[in-house]
Task: structure prediction
Amino acid sequence: MHCQDFLKGLMAAAILFSVQIAHADDAPEQQLATLLNTLQTTQGSFEQVVSSQQGMTLQTTSGTFALHRPGLFRWQTLKPSPQLLVADGSKIWLYDHELNQVAWFKEEVNNSQSPAMLLVGQVQDLTKLYRITLKNSDDQAVFTLKPRKNSFFEQVQVIFDDAALRAMVIKDHMGQTIRIDFSQLSDGANGSLFHFSPPKGVDLVQAAV
Result:
């Protein structure tokens, strides 16, 4: 997978939170904002599956993640190959162990129209950037967000089950789907997780998303 596509997939990712569901009579954007506002710092495990428009599995990855609002997250892929993505508040770092390369990006998470912004960005920007709808079924709540401006993805769904975030589903304009399931969630994340220094001897390149 190309470095940019890999980054976008990971940024689609990130996260978890266990929270109280907002009042059912609130507008969808208010309910989602209430949930996001309760999230400060958390960590857990993830499994990410990329599927084609025909439903064929193209790639499966798994690993761990951590986040701290606003703007900080860590996404560490362990299988099938080790890669590390860290947003430290000013830069985004992508460390590919096999390539012995570190790519860094100037783009700030808080200013980007990416799924990661939903989880670690400023909540007040939600309605400016997305059209938000909500579908409830039994104990499950599915928020669907569609970008108001051009974006690499067509829509992103944030899925809650029994008041806890369970998954994110991102669909791009090519018909591919990225589904991220979260597990082993816990509150709190050590601040050192969001610091990154390129190891000695790696190739350091500046890239653009």
Remarks:
- The CA atoms of residues 51 and 58 lie 5 Å apart.
